[in-house]
């Protein structure tokens, strides 16, 4: 069941950032974070400072909510990032950025990541000509993401892409509105990820 509007707004204000859980509303002046940057509650001004543990936990929760992950999904992604070479924090962000539901959101296939997950599970998206119904599918350079070959899927996604036609694409993605599709040009880098999160704090938290 989808979260109620008020609950979603409180969640964004509590994290102190836009989680884009309500799609295009988050990009307008009606966004709760734009109007009230302080946390929800009557006595938010009385709240003390977070402990070191609290700061690390908050960064982790922020990352999970931004990408819409459950705890088990987060642990699996962290374990995979830890197994790889290089900086674990950056590897984790790159893995999450490559998720098919996130890529579809950036391309404008749907107004939010949660809606993109629905589209994918219901079979509206295909990669390299094959239907993919797994939101956590990791894209790679050369992959072409497009609506499933049906008039309903194409019309639905094309209409939504037109609504976000002015959205600037990161350099690792390229998109076309007519016909509606996106192409992965390269792997994303940390510089391409605009999420204001301190990944090193997450690594420290998960390594305890």
What's the structural blueprint in terms of helices and strands?
Blueprint: H1 5-15, H2 32-35, H3 52-67, H4 71-83, H5 88-97, H6 100-107, H7 113-121, E1 125-127, E2 130-131, E3 144-147, H8 151-163, E4 173-176, E5 181-184, H9 199-206
Antiparallel strand pairs: 1-2, 1-3, 3-5, 4-5
Helix pairs in contact: 3-9, 4-5, 5-9, 6-7
Description:
This protein has 208 residues and is of the alpha+beta class. The chain folds into three domains: 1-40; 53-96 and 193-208, Ribosomal protein S4/S9, N-terminal domain (Ribosomal Protein S4 Delta 41, Chain A, domain 1, Orthogonal Bundle), CATH 1.10.1050; 99-184, RNA-binding S4 domain (Structural Genomics Hypothetical 15.5 Kd Protein In mrcA-pckA Intergenic Region, Chain A, Roll). 44% of the residues lie in helices and 8% in strands. It has helices at residues 5-15, 32-35, 52-67, 71-83, 88-97, 100-107, 113-121, 151-163, 199-206, and strands spanning 125-127, 130-131, 144-147, 173-176, 181-184. The protein has a five-stranded antiparallel sheet with strand order 2-1-3-5-4. The longest helix is centred in the first third of the chain and has 16 residues, at 52-67. It starts with a helix and ends with a helix. The mean pLDDT is 85.
Q: TL;DR of this structure?
A:
This protein is an alpha+beta fold and 208 residues long. The protein is built from 9 helices and 5 strands. The longest helix has 16 residues, at 52-67.
